[in-house]
Amino acid sequence: MAERLPAHLEAAGFIRQAEAEGGFGTIIKRGDADRGALILLIASRGQHQACLERALGPDGIYGWQRSGPPVGADSQSLADWSEKRLRFDEDSWLIELDIPDPQRLIVEMGAKG
């Protein structure tokens, strides 16, 4: 199985990256500091672009996949989905990133789906 950084370090890195690119990042919900799943709500100028979730693949390697509401979803849809998802896994981290070029981040992360 592939090793990964503790969740709290990765979460902090996403926030720093968003801010370095002129955007904004915040942790909406803190999960398990070491092994919590990471869920990213990605927006651009307040407009929802994607939900990305890191998942362990059948090959034992972590990868990013799209999940959640579609592009342009309203805040209530995002809140409902997030609440349901966090009930499923209380150790998850929910991180919101509002960045100038969300598609570049999505492509760089190799998100599937």
From TrEMBL:
Organism: Sphingomonas caseinilyticus
Alphabetical list of Pfam families matching this protein: DUF1491
Matching Gene3D superfamilies: Protein of unknown function (DUF1491)
Protein name according to UniProt: DUF1491 family protein
Taxonomic superkingdom: Bacteria
